[in-house]
Amino acid sequence: MNTEIPQDGKAHRGLAGLLASMFLDSKLTPLLVMAALALGLVAVLAIPREEDPQIQVPMLDVMTAMPGASPREVEERVTNPIESWMHQIPGVEYVYSISSPGQSLVIVRFQVGSSEQDALVKVYNKLYANADGMPPGASRPLVKVHSIDDVPILTMTLWGEHYNGYELRQIADEVQHTIRQVPDVSETSVIGGQPREMRVILSSARLAAFGISPDTVVQRLKAANARVQAGQFAESNQEIRVDAGHLFRDTEDLAGVVVGVENGRPVYLRDVAEKIQDGPADPGDYVLFGTTQASAPGGPREYPAVTLTVAKLKGSNATDVANAVLHRIHQMRGVNLPADVHLTVTRNYGATAKQKSDELMQHLFLATISVTILIALFLGWRESGVVLLAIPVTLAFTLAIFYLLGYTINRVTLFALIFSIGILVDDAIVVVENMVRHFRMPVNCRRPLREVAIEAVDEVGNPTILATFTVIAAILPMAFVRGLMGPYMRPIPVGASIAMLFSLAVAFIVSPWAARRLLGRKHLEGAHTLEPEKEGWLTRLYRRAMQPLMRSARNRWLFLGSVVVLLMFAAALVPLKMVLVKMLPFDNKSEFQIIVNMPDGTPLEQTTRVTQALGDYLSRQRQVVNYQIYSGTAGPFNFNGLVRHYYLRHQVNQADIQVNLLPVHQRSEQSHAIARQLRPGLDQIAARYGARIQVTEVPPGPPVLQTLVAEIYGPSEQGQIALARKVKKIFEQTPGVVDTDWYMQDPQSELVMQVDQTKAALHGISVAQVAETLRLATSGMQAGLLHDPTAREAIPTFVEMERPDRSSEQALENIKLRAADGSMVSLRELVDVKHTTLQPDIYHKNLKRVVYVTGDVAGGEESPVYAILKMNQALRKLTPGGFPLKIYNAVQPESTAHYSMKWDGEWQITIEVFRDLGLAFAVVLVLIYVLVVGWFKSFTAPLVIMAPIPLTLVGILPAHALMGAFFTATSMIGFIAGAGIIVRNSILVVDFIELRLKQGMPLAEAVIDAGAVRLRPVLLTAGGVIIGASVILPDPIFQGLGLSLIAGSVASTFLSWPAVPVLYYMLHPAHRQAPPEPCNLPEES
Predict the structure, then answer these.
(1) How large is the greatest C-alpha to C-alpha distance in the chain, in angstroms?
(2) Of 530 and 595, the one with more pLDDT
(3) Phi, psi dihedrals of residue 744, rounded to the nearest 5°
(4) Among residues 91, 657, 705, 753, which one has the fewest Cβ atoms lying within 10 Å of its Cβ?
(5) Which ranges in the chain are annotated with CATH 1.20.1640.10?
(6) With left for phi above 0 and alpha for psi between -120 and 50, is residue 839 left, alpha or beta?
(7) Rounded to an integer, what distance in angstroms lies between the CA atom of residue 659 and that of residue 661?
(8) What architecture is domain 57-146?
């Protein structure tokens, strides 16, 4: 039944009717459309493009030196006070620290969204206000701030068949000098190669022969390399400036320095030096570029290399900066960059950002066209044109707001727009469909088209407004997710909510204007028939299916019981592990890292041999294009490395291998699958050399210290270490847990030369003189600079002993110092030698001493949730100190009086995200309930409208199981958004039921008729959501969002559409007896 009682054209109109009447024939309407499209175009061109959202989380490193102090003394004297001061600063979320021999590092992490400048000012103010609390012997704290803008967007590796590291370094310095001039380039750095250095190698035998101490040579070199502006004087009406001194400019200047006097004759540096050389420094690290069978025609090889990194200024366009740098380098070819030097781009986030944004723009266009075709099939091509106009106008307004909010174009903001397409067309669909229905009604065939259009818009206006705000109420609370995931996912709820608001305005202003012009002729052609429009087969099928449910209570209960059984079956998939829960799925990148840790005390050459063995294995893999080895130094860090502080890895027993894979479109396997395949072979090689490795992938979301992190707390340092050792063993024995490690140094031998102060004083030698001599002998010492104005880097003058004179305990003891009486005294006579073990570093988190045990997950259940559940069973059996181990999941223990353990890493973010999403969902339910109660003025109507929300799980969870996908945070976002969509549809049905009841229709007929009349717009809405979400499915991170929207829409449409009328019928028995009297429309005045 499809008859209606038309309203009088002058009846009271709602907001929708008023807007439609104002803009239906207004000349401003097309101007608004053109202005919106222009704004959108400007926003697309102006908004910077990046691959991932910019997460603003200031991290500051406070570094303090206290030479000679043990880790325990550094902890007590330096680290503890600084930690306490930093913890007092408002906005500080975490304070980490490492107390090492002679130095302290305190890492201050502020809350997400804090201003970097404000954080830096607060830290400096606190340090300077407490400067008097620093102990004597400690240096002034050095503060370095780090943010996501420090991550290099572009890295280029220089290598060549005929070049060594020293030559490549000089070339890289020239390239670096040039690209610093490119606009919007921030920090640049050169990694690897040997810098130019003036090396002075002293001979202990010659020094002894001339009676000169090694430290005396350094003092004389520093004194001889000085030049100052002495002053000026006036002569002949001209002021003459006087400079005094001398600067070293070449080896001859250095060799001629007088370092002593022997029998009245000067002793020059060349007399006591074995070698004075201007050239490459001794290798302190190795950087190698590895080719593979897939990329090198001549087969895999490794070449000396240097890597040049480029970061961009905050707010600039990564694509533009990267392209500008590469263009400038191309212009240098054959000038400062030799033609036979290979320059391989090993990271280009600007290119990947453009590729991703272009791909998603295509998906956005595809989704728009697909939705338009869907509407054309259901309503007609003219009708689809109305909706097609609404989509770009709404998206244009949304992009303009994105620009004003400071968002960038990245995959999250673009996914927000794609996700929005499925729901932003709802308003236009409802309005256009109702206008089409009214145009085709026989009772309207003689009425003016303007009146019918306004009446049609006004009829669905109020429920559409309410439905739109319920969708916004369902989506917007997700914007308040805290932690690192908050800004990462925030563009989705913010963008969708903005799009919904604009889509509502467009539906009431632009859509009626366009429909009047596109559908007017069609209306006039069909206006002469008084026959009612024939219902479609789907509508007729719906009416036939609903009749038995209305006639029999048994059928109604059987239907609802079946729905409950389906819901219980779907929910059971989670505990049965047919659907696995994870914070975010694995991403598909073209790179990953291998972090290599050798035992403490391992020399650089052995570390390099291990990395070369690993590189040899990588070179034979078909998916690997190339790799770079960084041995003894840190490679270019990404956001993951920034949070994990990989840039501090400069020890000779540490290495980093950056592995570059084939581009995503040239391989079938995802990067995670490749890393998982390579891990066993890499582990076998590492085990042969006693190395510990971690295969580190680019995280899909905010990075953490490691996937699995166990924090061990307790009253005793030794007890913590013993407990951590047991926890580490449990990690190693748990199936699916890989890359197990702990933050505890291996025992390393230490040679302590304790100065006998009495003997030293008798010889007129100070303790500091002995210490400086030993430092010069073992590590070398800088004695100033070589002043070459043409050099790009500073050229230090570096003094060291011959290798045989510093390679053994006996050689060190034989070094001689000059006593006060002129005699030469060997160190053996001044020191007592002790052999000890170096004390390990001490770690703190939020002022509590902690030992970290870390690991990753691999295998069938690649989620930390299930690995933790397995390990908890073994961990609960531990009884440190005679008490059961207390395990914390979400908060740090308040006290360290008893041994305890806290899970951190990805687990912490998982808890925070799902907790906040759960709270957001609870807020959603309350907001929707309040809105519906306020509108329908009934406490039972919201129950009918909200009852179908759980029904989306009937589709969502089985879909995840069939696709083998994790139920992730994006899946949860899809579920919550789906709740808003299903409530929206339910509101339209319930509102229409009550409209029919007011018109005098019986309850059973009203609920069936409402469902039948609203079936077509609901199907169009579901189809729009499905099509919009379908283009999201290929993305590994947002696949869960797409699955939830698609499967949830299908399930809710097929289950809730009968369920809502049935529930309304069951909860309103009074209407079944006698229908209310028809309402009398007011007379026309």
Answers:
(1) 130
(2) 595
(3) -150, 125
(4) 91
(5) 15-46+379-528, 539-572+938-1085
(6) beta
(7) 7
(8) 2-Layer Sandwich (3.30)
CB under 8 Å to 879, separation ≥6 — which residues?
885
- Tokens (6 digits) for 28: 């401003």
Structure tokens at 696: 């580190």
Confidence at 1082, pLDDT banded by 50, 70, 90: very low
Instruction: Report helix, strand or coil for 721.
Output: helix
| pLDDT computed for residue 949 by the predictor | 86
Contact 531, 454 (CB under 8 A): no
SS3 968: coil
The sign of the CA dihedral 544, 546, 550, 554 is: positive
CB environment 537-571: b (16+ within 10 A), e (fewer): eebeebbeebeebbeeeeebeebbeebeebbeebe
Helix (H) or strand (E) holding 677: helix 671-689
Write out the residue limits of the CATH 3.30.70.1320 domain(s) in the chain: 154-193+292-352+588-594+612-698
Q: Enumerate residues 6+ apart whose C-beta is below 8 A from 787.
A: 247, 248, 249
Give 55's DSSP letter. -
Q: How would CATH label the architecture of 15-46+379-528? A: Up-down Bundle (1.20)
Q: Tell me whether residue 1033 is exposed, middle or buried, using C-beta atoms within 10 angstroms of its C-beta: 0 to 12, 13 to 18, 19 or more.
A: middle
Which is nearest to 644 in space by CA: 50, 64, 151?
A: 151
Q: To which residue do tokens 């008798």 refer?
A: 762
CATH class entry, domain 539-572+938-1085 = mainly alpha
Fold classification of 154-193+292-352+588-594+612-698 is Alpha-Beta Plaits (3.30.70)
Give the span between the Cα atoms of 935 and 951, in whole angstroms: 24
pLDDT digits (tens, 9 = 90+) for 253-266: 888 899 988 888 99
Taking residue 223's Cβ as centre, other Cβ atoms within 10 Å add up to 11
User: Which residue from 294, 298, 288 is spatially nearest to 613, judged by alpha carbons?
Assistant: 288
Q: What is the pTM of this model?
A: 0.85
Residue with structure tokens 């004297």? 77
Contacts of 475 (CB under 8 A, 6+ apart): 492, 493, 496, 497, 500, 976, 977, 980
Which stretch of DSSP H or E encloses residue 701?
Answer: none
List pLDDT tens digits, range 721-738. 999 999 999 999 999 899
